[in-house]
Amino acid sequence: MGVVADAALGAGGSVTGVMTEQLVTAEVAHLGLTELEVVPTMHARKARMAELSDGVIVLPGGFGTLDETFEMITWNQLGLVAVPVVFLDVAGYFAPLFDFIDLSVSTGFVSPANAALARRASSVVDAVEQAVAAPDAYTPKWLG
Fold it and tell me: Which DSSP state fits 59?
């Protein structure tokens, strides 16, 4: 994420980071950001990032990335937020994940409306366009 932050700053943009006290103490924080908010827990971090977000673009990553992403999708599913979530599928990285989502729909564990909350883009331009577009209409999880 530091590379993305540096590119945004280098292009004249502003960048707000949200990190836990633990990561700041471990000296993982990017100290050159426009603003750095320090929160006590990962849950507080995710909640704050949700408050600050109008749209989310997910880059390839590991378990932390998936945790944050699926919590945001779940919050959309429950109507707690209305924020587009777009996976930037670099070199097919997220293809197996979307296969799993399709399987979840075909086996009846996820509704098609809720599966659509996980958007997919193959280019940065497409990802940005989707992330700033209107969010999907709220479909109650237990009814949709």
Answer: P
| Spatial distance between the Cα atoms of 144 and 123, rounded to a whole number of angstroms | 30
Q: For 140, what's the count of Cα atoms within 13 Å in the CB-facing half-sphere? A: 2
Start-end of CATH 3.40.50.450 domains in the chain: 55-136
For 28-37, the pLDDT digits (tens) are 888 889 999 9
Q: Are the CB atoms for 7 and 33 separated by under 8 Å?
A: no
Answer yes or no: is pLDDT of 143 > 70: no
Predicted local confidence at residue 137, as pLDDT? 79
Q: Tens digit of pLDDT for each residue in 55-105?
A: 999 999 999 999 999 999 999 998 899 999 999 999 999 999 999 999 999
Query: What is the fold of 55-136?
Result: Rossmann fold (3.40.50)
pTM for the model: 0.89
* 106/97 Cα distance (integer angstroms): 14
Q: Distances from the Cα of 31 to the Cαs of 1, 18, 112, in angstroms?
A: 13, 12, 42
How buried is residue 141: exposed, middle or buried, by Cβ count under 10 Å (0-12/13-18/19+)? middle
What DSSP designation does 57 have? Answer: E
